[in-house]
Amino acid sequence: xxxxxxxxxxxxxxxxxxxxxxxxxxxxxxxxxxxxxxxxxxxxxxxxxxxxxxxxxxxxxxxxxxxxxxxxxxxxxxxxxxxxxxxxxxxxxxxxxxxxxxxxxxxxxxxxxxxxxxxxxxxxxxxxxxxxxxxxxxxxxxxxxxxxxxxxxxxxxxxxxxxxxxxxxxxxxxxxxxxxxxxxxxxxxxxxxxxxxxxxxxxxxxxxxxxxxxxxxxxxxxxxxxxxxxxxxxxxxxxxxxxxxxxxxxxxxxxxxxxxxxxxxxxxxxxxxxxxxxxxxxxxxxxxxxxxxxxxxxxxxxxxxxxxxxxxxxxxxxxxxxxxxxxxxxxxxxxxxxxxxxxxxxxxxxxxxxxxxxxxxxxxxxxxxxxxxxxxxxxxxxxxxxxxxxxxxxxxxxxxxxxxxxxxxxxxxxxxxxxxxxxxxx
Length: 426
Hints:
mainly beta
């Protein structure tokens, strides 16, 4: 899927684009064969959130501070252009104003500049990491990243647990507000998703969307599309939504007490669910239990392989990872059928993922006892192709990134790792 608001690279933003398919837009896969295995170059960092790709050979890393937040002081972020193999910093931004702490977001815009949202600030930088402009966002709350619409506008929102979420739209060139802020119907924890010039918001009980209206130059809520996904349910709020064809996919029971890992972090007695909502008829939504175990929880989206018609979900708190085959719609309401494909229990997946569509290689994490492994699976059958220990003590719950040379980057709070296949030595 091509999103024209983003720079033409294999991975210009978190999840490779605002539809959150987590699939590389260009290039070959890892192509792990007999006689090769994963290798790892790892570098300790302050809290790493994500890496993204610009022009060929350009890799950018977003990190942020955290300790100051524990004593009520404002935090800051930083962007580095790093060497694609050694991971050493080549250029580094000055400290970027942040304020309230929450992992933010970064993207390379179609205009060639970098944009960052962290804390209550948005920043524009050039690709040498020089700060060009800063915008103070309206609420003194952390803003959890942004999406770029196909028309180039930048849409961000505050992370709100109780107060209504508020959408702010910025013009990328002037870096000023494009329209009045939009007050959403309820609070929203999840990050925004987008398709074209339409923004999707997963609230704490409902999902709704806004279309950019060119004539009035503002975001307008779609009055005919709203999904009450927690109606008659005991689960807690949902996280980020994946947009695929006529479907939106996400998971609920997102409230947890993550510290070092998601293992046992669920605090709601219900099992977490995979949810699918029709983008054509919002009243048509379906749910499936992931593990079916109590206190299930996640902090991230599922993954959908558009070509192979596979959806991958997980229960991080109970260590379950599973995949289903997606059928064609069964009726006029657009219901789909999921057929179980494979299932791994005792598998500590919690992070956003990377899919190499050309080879069907799915990159996930597996965490237990203060050790994080990154694993490559065959998405068709769940077979493990290879794994490597990153050296990380914390379970990654943030944003990996495909690389330039048959590799990918894994961010896990305390480090960034370059993962790549190499010949097995005897």
